[in-house]
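Final report, Chapter 2: Outcomes

The project's central promise was a pipeline that accepts a single protein chain and returns its three-dimensional structure in a standardized token representation, suitable for archiving and comparison. That pipeline is now operational. To close this chapter, we reproduce one record exactly as it appears in the project archive, with the input sequence first and the structure output second.
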Amino acid sequence: MAKERILVVDDEEDILELVRFNLDRERYSVICTTSGREALTIARKEYPDLIVLDLMLPDIDGLEVARILKGDPKTKNIYIVMLTAKGEEPDIVTGLEFGADDYVPKPFSPRVLVARVRAVLRRKVQEGVADESVLRIRDLVIDSGRHEVRLNDKKVPLTFTEFGVLTFLAKRPGWVFTRSQIVDGVRGDDYPVTDRSVDVQIVGLRKKLGSAGNYIETVRGVGYRFEE
């Protein structure tokens, strides 16, 4: 049975073939390219379910490709797994901010990559049947269907990660979550992000939400919770 379509973008032919072989073995429909510009063209024409994206490309780098795709209403829902040698914490955080759904550093295990791809696509299925009701918390409105947050009827510009963290906490008011649980809930198991990265997202959320930022409470020694 045919599975989801995956676009693989990497300028190293041997890595491209390795990824293609392992995804094809899992019966995914795989498209490959070595060019960032061509990746944009393919994504806009084929609308793949997921893109395995290298950052260091010869024409347009992977971060710019991700930024363009996530900024386009027609392609913003395409999942992106970044695969790159740039695996330090600042690189990972930057990838998240540009809309990556997972991040696999090189050198990598093909089995781990396939597992990450499978996990991201599984979240896609779960989101497809998830309750998309609008959450209303006093002057704050979180619309999962529109992927939109409004405060006093004014749209709040959040990154994909900030929206995910806010929604995860707001759907479970009063529950206390560790930083690791927040990462797992928003991005999936075994995501390579440190506790500090979660703190950065919370700081950004509080700043953008103004007085409503107080709805996110810090539980010392544990993590965070949304005001009950």
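Archive annotation: Residues 5-129 form a domain with the Rossmann fold fold (CATH 3.40.50.2300).
This record, like all others produced under the grant, will remain available to the consortium after the project formally closes.
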